Amino acid sequence: MAEVTAEARIAAPAARVWQQLIDFASYGQWNATHTSFPKGGPDPLAVDAVYLENMKLMGFPAEVTWTVAGLETERLLATTGTGPMGVNLAMRYALTPDGDETTVRIEGSFTGAAVTLMAGKLKDSATGALNESLRKLAGLVE
């Protein structure tokens, strides 16, 4: 298993950060691993909604089937996914409002036989991508 975490304090209210986070049409503007949603994002955005995402991890393309596992407006978006080579993924975006600022914490995990072989490199690559994503997200909403 590889687990990754990144956190940033963004100078924008949670409502603005949330709107950017769930604007699936603009994911490519801030999400460093995202390449496309072949059939669009989850519509409607609700627990158990399923959608496909094309991503690039460690320089390799991957198609992930995501399911929304948890949803709390302006607070939490949690997803679980299945990718190539039997890899299972989980992503959790948690927003903690503090007046006109918001702390955004992203937690991810990757499991499966293929992950065991490259867990260290995957963790380093994914952590870098999460931190880059948070910087870009902040740039869009601040």
Describe it for me?
There is one protein chain. The protein is 26% helix and 44% strand. It has 142 residues and is α+β, with helices and mostly antiparallel strands. The protein has a single domain (2-141), classed as 2-Layer Sandwich (Alpha-D-Glucose-1,6-Bisphosphate, Chain A, domain 4). A 7-stranded antiparallel sheet has the order 1-7-6-5-4-3-2, covered by helices on one side. Helix 1 (14-21) crosses helix 2 (113-141). The longest helix has 29 residues, at 113-141. The chain is globular, with a radius of gyration of 14 Å. The mean pLDDT is 93. This is SRPBCC family protein. It comes from Streptantibioticus ferralitis.
List keywords for this structure.
142 residues, Alpha-D-Glucose-1,6-Bisphosphate, Chain A, domain 4, seven-stranded antiparallel beta sheet, 7 strands
Q: What is the secondary structure topology, with strand pairs?
A:
Elements: E1 2-10, H1 14-21, E2 34-36, E3 50-57, E4 60-72, E5 76-82, E6 88-98, E7 101-111, H2 113-141
Antiparallel strand pairs: 1-7, 2-3, 3-4, 4-5, 5-6, 6-7
Quick summary of this structure?
This protein is 26% helix and 44% strand. With 142 residues, the chain is an alpha+beta fold. It has one domain (2-141): Alpha-D-Glucose-1,6-Bisphosphate, Chain A, domain 4 (2-Layer Sandwich).
